[in-house]
Specification:
- The protein is of the alpha+beta class and 238 residues long.
- The chain is built from 9 helices and 8 strands.
- The strands form 4 sheets. It has a two-stranded antiparallel ribbon with strand order 1-4. It has a two-stranded antiparallel ribbon with strand order 2-3.
- The chain starts with a strand and ends with a helix.
- The relative contact order is 0.14.
- The N terminus is likely disordered.
Length: 238
Amino acid sequence: MLVLIWGRYGGITLLAGKFSILWEDLVIIRLSCGNVSSRFIAIQGQIVVGNSTDLKDLLAKTRPDFTIQNLRDFTDWAEQRVLAGEYSDNLLILASLGLDKDLVREEVQTYFAAYLKDIGKPYPDSLEATVYYFRRCFKILAWSEDENVVWGTLIDTFDRWYEFDSPMLSRVVNYWNGVRSDFVDCFDEEYGYLHVMFPRHFDIPRQKQCDYIRETAKRFFWLLECEYTCSLILKNSS
């Protein structure tokens, strides 16, 4: 179930099945998709996720064109799952690999894939892994306290135009290409905005841009966190 209220953010239209979601009016205040809400931490009535690694973050790293920078993300995550009481032979082996001084990529990937089979989770194809990749990016943008990390992630992730076999995902990412363009490429420290893709950005001064990025990224994170939304993205691929 996806629960929405309406505000004003962005400027693109997302078609999903028989209904239309307008980004310029969309404010997602809660997602309840299966058991996903159990991973949220409520603080003063707000839902906070944080940047700790979860399974979907690791699935993002299975993209064929993704270079895994830190294999210990897998072993550290596996160790935390074991400590939390989850049991699987392959999970236990994956966690134990963290004791090795040098990790072997093939071993890590083999036992991670075997763990996915244990839990009945199909190994994601390229498009599904890409959805998880952008979910991870939105998580970093939304909950990183360091502004340099926020700006670095925005610039590094949306410094190119992507082509996807999914119109819905293309709309999501193209919007963020526009955010990067307006706040980075089209903003001059002396003269302000030279031009923008989204007119509402004219009203956001430099000192408020990072807060805007964080708050907007939260809404997109919730969207990609929802299994139903992800299924629509994958279903509407050609």
